[in-house]
């Protein structure tokens, strides 16, 4: 009970003080950027830890994702965010199945959309988790807790979440890396040829296009999978 109260208090503070949360995250990213100059692995561990905390406490992760790309570049940033977001999603899932179950049930009570997803998860847990990650129909953090109320197996949830979040992770990390590249060029730290710039921005365009395409395909597939279990649907 004490844990639930503390969790609710932190979430309420984050909701009432979004500027404080944003400033805190920016301060952490600034510190990890300095740390990464000498200890990249340690910097990655810090961001992973922050991501886990953000997932459990309903804090926005998009800033951390873009920041990871800015600080660690595309490859390291993608690996770091992928690990952090998956571990964070799993942590929130386990919290939902234990100490925060009743609170999450009240948050989702009366949601027809979640009720439909819950029925679909009962039939095809891994597939539904994967599709919702590829094309989220709920906010990321709430979805983490919501799946904790379903019957999906933990390892199915973890693997499907990791795979499903990869396209979006690559897109946002690549964006952060692009911003970092521009900042370095503006500061005179690096010199890039026009061909290098072109290749980098084409890579970003491809990452965005793939993420959008995958999301659209997943959205259609999710709609079909969920509608199959809707009450009153004719069976063939």
Topology:
Layout (H helix, E strand, L loop, with lengths): L1 H15 L1 H19 L3 H17 L5 H36 L3 H8 L3 H12 L1 H10 L5 H8 L6 H33 L7 H34 L9
Helix pairs in contact: 2-3, 2-4, 3-4, 4-8, 4-9, 6-7, 7-9, 7-10, 9-10
Defining traits:
236 residues, mainly alpha, 10 helices, 0% strand, disordered N terminus
Low-confidence spans: pLDDT under 50, at least 5 residues? Answer: 1-17
The proportion of residues in beta strands is under 5%
Task: Please write the string of helix (H) and strand (E) elements.
Answer: HHHHHHHHHH
Distance separating the two termini: 48 Å
Mean pLDDT: 75
Rough outline: globular
Count of runs of 4 or more consecutive helical residues = 10
The biggest sheet, with number of strands, parallel, antiparallel or mixed sense and barrel status, is: none
Taking Cα atoms only, what radius of gyration do you get, to the nearest Å?
19 Å
Structural class: mainly alpha
Percent of residues in helices: over 70%
Q: What's the total count of β strands?
A: 0
Number of domains: 1
Write up this protein.
With 236 residues, the chain is mainly alpha-helical. The chain has one domain (2-227). The protein has ten helices and no strands. It has helices at residues 2-16, 18-36, 40-56, 62-97, 101-108, 112-123, 125-134, 140-147, 154-186, 194-227. It is globular.
